[in-house]
């Protein structure tokens, strides 16, 4: 009876040392071939009734990175001028159409706004022009790539890419994001 009493209290679901040893080191008691890896579960954001933050931007859309759950939005679907964020779609279209080691001959130079400093007749790789677009925000680099593919075709490809990405409030009319009343996007589309 003494042995039954010891075994009973050793595995009693209270504050047992044996239970703690097993519970906190359970993987030591599982044979190696039966071990199962547990996927990482990321927590979803919990939006509370917190005070709305002051944001000076006229349009905002913030979503959780992992779950894509909207955390904050303000006029998220309102059409706005995308400006240089247009160059992101320009770069995506370039990746679809050209190889980074392709060589482009500069046929016309646009010197409006921020430029990379290209010279007419210059030969430069697509990769260098992409750096000019994404790092320098060079309008001349964006136009050079569009011209290389065929300007009108390139603008159509930008709009096709926008539709493929479900950007429903977006229309592109130039590759650099220079101001145009017809070139619009929204915070939701850009996110």
Report the uncertain regions. none
- Tertiary shape: extended
Order of helices and strands: HHEEHEEHHHH
User: What level of helicity do the residues show?
Assistant: 25-40%
Largest sheet: 2 strands, antiparallel
Across the major sheet, the strand order is 1-2
User: DSSP helix count?
Assistant: 7
Give a brief rundown of this model.
The protein is mainly alpha-helical and 191 residues long. It has helices spanning 2-10, 17-24, 86-97, 126-134, 139-149, 151-164, 187-190, and strands at 60-63, 70-74, 103-105, 123-125.
Labels describing this entry:
191 residues, mainly alpha, two-stranded antiparallel ribbon, 7 helices, 4 strands, 35% helix
What report would you give on this structure?
With 191 residues, the chain is mainly alpha-helical. It is 35% helix and 8% strand. The strands form two sheets. Strands 1-2 form a two-stranded antiparallel sheet. A hairpin with a 6-residue loop joins strand 1 and strand 2. Helix 3 (86-97) runs parallel beside helix 5 (139-149) and helix 3 (86-97) packs across helix 6 (151-164).
Please give the structural blueprint:
Elements lengths: L1 H9 L6 H8 L35 E4 L6 E5 L11 H12 L5 E3 L17 E3 H9 L4 H11 L1 H14 L22 H4 L1
Antiparallel strand pairs: 1-2, 3-4
Helix pairs in contact: 3-4, 3-5, 3-6, 4-5, 5-6
């Amino acid at each position: 009876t003494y042995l039954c009493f010891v075994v009973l209290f050793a595995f009693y679901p209270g504050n047992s040392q044996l239970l703690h040893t097993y519970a906190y080191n359970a993987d030591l008691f599982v044979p190696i071939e039966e071990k199962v890896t547990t996927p990482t579960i990321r927590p979803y954001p919990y939006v509370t009734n917190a005070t709305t933050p002051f944001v000076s931007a006229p349009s905002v859309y913030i979503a959780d990175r992992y779950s894509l759950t909207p955390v904050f939005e303000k006029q998220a679907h309102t059409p706005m001028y995308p400006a240089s964020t247009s160059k992101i779609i320009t770069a995506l279209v370039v990746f679809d159409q050209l190889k980074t080691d392709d060589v482009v001959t500069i046929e016309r130079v646009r010197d409006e706004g921020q430029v990379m400093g290209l010279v007419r007749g210059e030969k430069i790789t697509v990769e260098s022009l992409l750096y000019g677009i994404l790092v320098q925000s060079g309008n001349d680099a964006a136009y050079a790539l569009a011209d290389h593919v065929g300007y009108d075709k390139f603008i159509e490809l930008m709009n096709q890419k926008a539709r493929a990405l479900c950007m429903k409030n977006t229309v592109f009319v130039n590759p650099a994001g220079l101001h145009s009343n017809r070139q619009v996007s929204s915070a939701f589309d850009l996110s």
